Amino acid sequence: MTDQAKWFCAEQLTDNIRRIWEPHVHRFFRANLFHVIGKDADLIIDFGMGLAPLRPFLNIDIGKPVIALATHVHADHIGSFHEFEHRLGHAAEADGFAGMEDVVTLAHLFRELPQGVEQKPEPSFDQDDYAIHEAPLTTVLAENDTVDIGVSLYKVLHLPGHSPGSIGLLDETSGIFFSGDAIYDGTLVDDLPGCDKSAYRTTMRRLRDLDVSVAYGGHGAPMTRERMRTIANAYLDASAQR
Ligand SMILES: [Zn+2]
Ligand SMILES: [Zn+2]
Question: Residue 240: what pLDDT?
C-alpha cells in the first residue's frame, strides 16, 4: 500500500520549475509533469496517469489561477487533467480530450501491460479497470499561440508525428523548451495508432534547428540543445534508412 501523498516524486529544475513523476508506474508510462510557478498564474504541463490525485501534491497558492496544458492526449500525460478547470491542448486532439477513447489515449496498452505499477496507489486499485476521466479543452491551441504566466511567455509549437496534436512550449527569452513526447532523451515512439512518420520527420527537422537553452521532455532527463540535435539527427538518419 502506498500513501497517496507519496505517489509522486519531485525535483527542482530552476527557481520556479519543478519536475514531477510517478516512480511506481511502469517505465513505459512513467512520464514527466512540470509545475511552472508564474507571477500571475501557475502553469502545469502534463498530468501523469491519474492513479492518485495530483492537485493536492502541487501545493498551489489558494486563489492563484492555474493553467493546465497537455502536450498531447496519451494516457501517461493526461490522467489528472480533469482535476483542473482551465484546460489547454491542441485543436487536433480536442475530440480526444473530450471523449478519452482508448484509440487516442492508448489506455488499453496500460491495462494490458504486465505489472503496470510496482505498488498500488490505493488498496482497491485494479489495473484492469484503468480508465481516464473526460477533460474537454476550455482553450483550443494552435501554432504560435502564447501562454503568459507573468514571468515567462511561452509560444506554442505544433509538433505532430508522435501524435497529431503534440505541442511544445518555448520561452524565447530564456530558451527553456518543454517538448512533450515530440522529443525526449529515450526511445522515441512513432509506431502507435495516431503516429505519422512523415509528419514526425518534418517535426524532427524543425527540432534539429530550434534554438533552445534546455529542453524538458515528456520522458527522461533534460536535454541540452546539442543533445536534442543529436537525438533529432539520429531519428532522421534511422528513418531515412527504413
Ligand atoms: Zn505520448
Ligand atoms: Zn509519454
Answer: 85
